[in-house]
From TrEMBL:
GO biological process, one term: mitotic intra-S DNA damage checkpoint signaling
Keywords tagged on the record: Nucleus
Region (Disordered): 44-63
Organism: Oreochromis aureus (Israeli tilapia)
Domain of life from the UniProt record: Eukaryota
Subcellular location: Nucleus
InterPro entries cross-referenced by the UniProt entry: HUS1 (IPR016580), HUS1/Mec3 (IPR007150)
Protein name: Checkpoint protein
Major subcellular site: nucleus
Matches recorded under PANTHER family: CHECKPOINT PROTEIN, MITOTIC AND DNA DAMAGE CHECKPOINT PROTEIN HUS1
Protein's UniProt keywords contain Ligase: no
GO cellular component: checkpoint clamp complex; nucleolus; site of double-strand break
Sequence similarity: Belongs to the HUS1 family.
C-alpha cells in the first residue's frame, strides 16, 4: 500500500479511501486530468464487540455493499505508512464516513494508532 500511495502523491495532495463490510477497499485520486483507483479485495473484517452495546442503543444495520469514505491529506497517510517499518502482525483501518480515518498497527504487545481527519 505504501508504494501505491507514494506514486499517487505525485498526482494529488488528497486521497479518498473507501471501504465496505464485504472486505473491499479502494484508494482513489481524482483530478481534472486523471482519475486513478486501486482496488483491494478479500480483506478481513473483524467483529467489534456486541453490536447492541455500541452507541448505547439498538444497532444500525448497514448494507455490506455500501461504501464509507474519507478524503485525507496524502502526506499524513504517508507518515502512518512509515510506521509499517516495525513489521506489524496486523494492520486495521476504521473509517467514520467523511469524518476521520483511524488506522492501527498491531505488533506483539504494542499498538500504534493514528487518526487522520477528513478534509472537505
Amino acid at each position: 500500500m505504501k508504494n501505491i500511495v507514494d506514486r499517487m502523491k505525485n498526482l494529488s495532495n488528497f486521497l479518498v479511501i473507501e471501504a465496505n463490510l464485504n472486505g473491499e477497499m479502494n484508494l482513489k485520486i481524482e483530478t481534472d486530468l486523471v482519475s486513478v483507483t486501486t482496488h483491494f479485495r478479500d480483506l478481513g473484517n473483524p467483529p467489534w464487540g456486541d453490536d447492541a452495546s455500541q452507541d448505547g442503543g439498538p444497532s444500525q444495520i448497514r448494507d455490506p455493499e455500501s461504501m464509507v469514505e474519507a478524503r485525507v491529506d496524502i502526506r499524513r497517510l504517508q507518515q502512518f505508512l512509515m510506521g509499517q517499518q516495525v513489521n506489524p502482525s496486523k494492520a486495521m483501518c476504521n473509517i467514520v464516513h467523511q469524518s476521520v480515518l483511524h488506522l492501527i498497527l498491531l505488533h506483539e504487545d504494542m499498538s500504534l494508532q493514528y487518526f487522520i481527519p477528513a478534509v472537505a
